[in-house]
Amino acid sequence: MKVALIGVGQAGGKLAEALSRDPLAADSVVSSLAINSARADLSSIGLDTLLVGAERVNGHGVGGDNDLGATVMRDDTNEVIDAVSGRVGSDCEAIIITAGLGGGTGSGGAPVLAHELKRVYDVPVYVLGVLPGRDEGALYQRNAGRSLKTLAREADATILVDNDAWRQAGESMDEGYAAVNEKIAQRVGLLLAAGEFDPANVAAESVVDSSEIINTLREGSLAAIGYASAESSPDADANLNTITSVVRNALLTGTSLPDATTAESGLLIVAGRADRINRKGVESAQTWLEDELGSMQVRGGDYPLDSERLAGLVLLGGVERSERVQAFLDQASEASVAEETPDATESLVNDDLDDLF
Ligand SMILES: Nc1nc2c(ncn2[C@@H]2O[C@H](COP(=O)(O)OP(=O)(O)OP(=O)(O)O)[C@@H](O)[C@H]2O)c(=O)[nH]1
Questions:
Q1: Ligand 1 center to residue 106 CA distance, Å?
Q2: I need a surface site. Which of 187, 220, 249, 340 has the fewest CB within 10 A?
């Protein structure tokens, strides 16, 4: 699936950089751009960059104020659309915006950018949005809640990445960020590569094309992505259990949004050497996934990969009702009005969290 990648804010830029460097994503990411209001943060990103809001904040960032993040993006919309227009070619099938939702520039800027891009382009606009970890302060939680609520309305889908998802004891903050960015790049890189429909690719029993990714993401406003892999045997018969167990691990321990096991739709991709992929294993993994997600809309396909390992990738569409989204929105609402909210789907539309615009 060919995409244009736009990172907004510091986390967004680093995530876009990690994804554009991922070997599997190389053919899919046709262009990339990092946008920020902080000049210093842009200087360390190895992508084309664009500074916004120079007139208001003089290159110093917005200091966690996401209303100001939205304002600087809106003020500079013309420059941003100009910079993006050379990067969204006719082969582009989607635009992906990456952003940390807890800060100011990415949190406020990403929904404005999604809104503007949707006015200009027909292709879907997705956001890869990082939720602050549970220990991050009230400002981050509230920012992310307001951003998410606005993104649920403006973007075609927001794939959520929980900064607590893969936290390891003893890791520094920067090491933790780098690990999350790499893991997301690996998952999204594989998803995009698998979505590159190649008719000459006779090795795959059933290929995935970009419309299946788009249809999976169409089923809701929030999404998550999971992955796991294991050593495989040269004998495909011996890989039946390997496939079912990597798919279980991809969903139960490997998702970008822990506890997201209720979804409107799913896409399962099994990657590995074609002669090692056990068809019965793929079918039973797909059935298990349907039961587990409570969805009859689980699509599936293979991605031939020259590796000794077999991998399972799951894309979940419509995870609004999952526990982690509920817990996050409760925390964000408490940070905002000190009140419990009844239901996650409801929180995305009620007035406990203000929209950004
Ligand atoms: N996964 C990940 N999260 C990050 C990274 N850097 C920062 N974050 C998270 O992103 C949020 C802060 O957003 P930033 O991107 O730093 O802020 P910004 O959008 O540049 O906004 P301002 O600094 O306020 O101008 C916090 O929740 C951090 O935990 C990163 O490289 N990877």
A1: 8
A2: 340
Q: Does residue 108's CB lie within 6 angstroms of at least one atom of ligand 1? A: no
Per-residue model confidence (pLDDT) at position 335: 87
Task: Tell whether residue 14 is among the known ligand binding residues.
Answer: yes
210-317 maps to CATH 3.30.1330.20 = yes
Annotated binding residue at 12? yes
Assign 3-class secondary structure to 127-196. Answer: EEEEECCCCCCHHHHHHHHHHHHHHHHHCCEEEEEECCCCCCCCCCHHHHHHHHHHHHHHHHHHHHHHCC
Contact 274, 306 (CB under 8 A): no
Residue 100 alpha carbon to ligand 1 centre in Å = 5
Instruction: Break the chain into its structural domains and give their ranges.
Output: 3-194, 210-317
Categorize the per-residue pLDDT at 341 as very low, low, confident or very high, splitting at 50, 70 and 90.
very low
Q: Which fold has domain 3-194?
A: Rossmann fold (3.40.50)
Q: How far is the CA of 98 from the centre of ligand 1 (A)?
A: 11
Global ipTM = 0.99
Closest protein CA for atom 5 of ligand 1: 11
